[in-house]
Design goal:
Layout (H helix, E strand, L loop, with lengths): L8 E2 L11 H23 L1 H12 L4 H48 L1 E2 L1 H17 L5 H33 L3 H4 L9 H13 L2
Antiparallel strand pairs: 1-2
Helix pairs in contact: 1-3, 2-3, 3-4, 4-5
Amino acid sequence: MGEAPEETISANSPKLAGTVGWGPATLVAVFAGMLYGGSKEASASVSKDAEVMLKLGSTPDKREQYRLMRDAMEKRFLRITKGSIIGGVRLGLFTAAFYGLQDVLAEKRGVHDVFNVVGAGSATAATFGLILPGSLPWRLRNSAMGSVLGAAICFPLGWVHLKLIEKANEGNAVSHPIGGERKSGVGAAIDRLEGNLNK
């Protein structure tokens, strides 16, 4: 009963608390990217609004003022909409590629561990570095840098995430035994306490 939790989680086990599927993660990323892209374009259009106000002040004709104001509002709306769509698509594609690759690695290797996160982060960052605009040497350099940075950033994040999953599922084997009798939360807590005392 006093065994330490394993560093890897078997892929054949039922879905554990804390694991994220690529679908919900992608949906959240699309909305987050839309919010970021739209707010970035909205803040960038402040200087353009100042130019419109200067033109309005120098135009005495009311019809011309109305036309300038309408054109400025239409352009602002189009800029914010375009920024939202591009931001949502970019972050959504990145997240879908990351989590999809992570799921493929976990399925092929048979375990959920930190190396799945590192491999997915490195490959995704390298791919997106390769598709950035620019010359071929520039894109190859971005891809190599993205691969290294993706692995370096994803290793500690993957390790922390795995530890959180282990902590979240610490009592699941006791409180929900497969093919066995289901215990209440109090019974599971007592069994965990006994296990900790027996260590």
